[in-house]
Amino acid sequence: MPIRKKDTARALGLLEEYCTKLRKLEEQQLKTAIQRVMGIFKSNLFEALLDIQEFYEVTLLNTQKSCEQKLEEVNHMADKWEKSVSIQNSELTHVACLVEEQREQSSSDPSGTEQGESSAKTSEIRNFL
Q1: If you write DSSP's letter for every residue of 38-83 in order, what string do you get?
Q2: pLDDT digit of tens for each residue in the chain (129 aa)?
Q3: What gap in Å lies between CA 122 and CA 109, rounded to an integer?
Q4: Cβ(76)–Cβ(59) below 8 Å
Q5: Residues 53 and 2 sit within 8 Å (Cβ to Cβ)
């Protein structure tokens, strides 16, 4: 049975609801493990896999579409994914620069006089992640 995005969204909702019911101390390991699974479901890779599966089923297996139509849709999806990867790479480069800049400031100024600016950058990095 193929997995659909709406099915994964529903499953995530059920897992989140279940997690809210886990309050006892002995249930915390289970809650943490479920949260790890939810993180995987929310990841970009998992979303991309769902996109690929859906694209394969809806476009490539569709016998009513011509080879030319399939080619056009494949090229459209490739362009879309390449743009997405390009944006993500530029964001990661920005974060890497911030981290490096913060390291350099920390090593050159151990007294912490730039602490306000440093904590603002740390906050920006955490928000990105």
Answers
A1: HHHHHSHHHHHHHHHHHHIIIIIT-TTS-HHHHHHHHHHHHHHHHH
A2: 566 778 888 888 999 999 999 999 999 999 999 999 899 888 888 888 888 888 898 899 999 999 999 999 999 988 887 887 777 677 777 777 777 777 777 776 655 545 555 555 555 555 555
A3: 16
A4: no
A5: yes
